[in-house]
């Protein structure tokens, strides 16, 4: 099996898509911490899960499959499995984000990382098993298990990184996530074995281009929605700052209280008496 039949630009495109989707997702997570209500926080987390799970993970790894080919024969993909994988990834990420919570306690962080990582692991397996050829395919269970463990660790690191708010830090985190997720995907591909049998019928399924191009266009254009929402969202960072103390107006030194039965009477010291 060949990984770069179309050139290494496929790898660069995959890394770019993974980076962009993850960065927008991390920014959505940051916006969720500024939400006043739980409803809007859930909306931001859902947008983050779609950006990271669907675009930054599933669409990005699908880009790499454009370069996968055989010296002889054709490769087809099961549409149902690809669509399930596209849905499982954001659901797993969203579950992990909700379980981890805003305060990221160690126990909740671990459970959230496990759920999100298992979701990514299932996505990885579905993506690999969706490939069909004129013959048979098999996946090494040890490689699948190793990829799943790495994905759980990656999900834990991603949830832990929710504590960062500075944009430059989010850019760096998204670069790391993009590199690791693509690397794990190629590790999974290394455990995929193909056996070509000319005596068997042609593989069922669809060509990746006919299935991927509309998904890629919709996914990249959909990034404009959370980006626009972030730009037009009200800046609530001010509510996190301590309220300014009321400035006391100094008393007029020319005024003094006149002792006597009526203590409310006042007179100016600058005015002559008598």
TrEMBL record:
User: Which portions of the sequence form the region Disordered?
Assistant: 241-274
Q: Where is the signal peptide?
A: none
UniProt-recorded name of the protein? MHYT domain-containing protein
In this chain the MHYT domain maps to 6-195
Which is a Gene Ontology cellular component entry for this protein? membrane
- Domain of life of the organism encoding this protein: Bacteria
Name the residue ranges with Basic and acidic residues bias.
Answer: 241-252, 265-274
């Amino acid at each position: 099996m060949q990984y770069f039949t179309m050139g290494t630009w496929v790898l660069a495109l995959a890394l770019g898509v993974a980076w962009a989707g993850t960065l927008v997702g991390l920014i959505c997570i940051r916006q969720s911490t500024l939400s006043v209500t739980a409803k809007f926080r859930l909306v931001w987390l859902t947008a983050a899960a779609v950006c990271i799970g669907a675009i930054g993970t599933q669409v990005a790894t699908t880009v790499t499959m454009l370069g996968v080919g055989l010296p002889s024969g054709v490769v087809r993909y099961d549409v149902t499995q690809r669509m399930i994988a596209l849905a499982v990834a954001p659901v797993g990420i969203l579950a992990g984000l909700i379980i981890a919570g805003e305060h990221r306690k160690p126990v909740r962080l671990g459970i959230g990382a496990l759920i999100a990582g298992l979701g990514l692991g299932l996505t990885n397996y579905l993506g690999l098993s969706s490939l069909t050829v004129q013959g048979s395919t098999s996946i090494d269970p040890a490689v699948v298990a190793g990829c799943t463990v790495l994905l759980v660790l990656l999900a834990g690191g991603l949830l832990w990184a929710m504590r960062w708010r500075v944009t430059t830090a989010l850019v760096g985190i998204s670069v790391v996530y993009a590199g690791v997720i693509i690397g794990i995907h190629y590790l999974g591909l290394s455990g995929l074995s193909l056996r070509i049998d000319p005596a068997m019928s042609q593989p069922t399924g669809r060509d990746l281009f006919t299935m991927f191009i509309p998904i890629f266009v919709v996914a990249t254009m959909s990034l404009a929605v959370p980006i626009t929402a972030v730009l037009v969202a009200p800046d609530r960072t001010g509510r996190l700052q301590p309220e300014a103390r009321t400035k006391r107006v100094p008393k007029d030194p020319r005024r003094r209280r006149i002792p006597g039965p009526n203590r409310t009477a006042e007179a100016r010291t600058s005015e002559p008496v008598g």
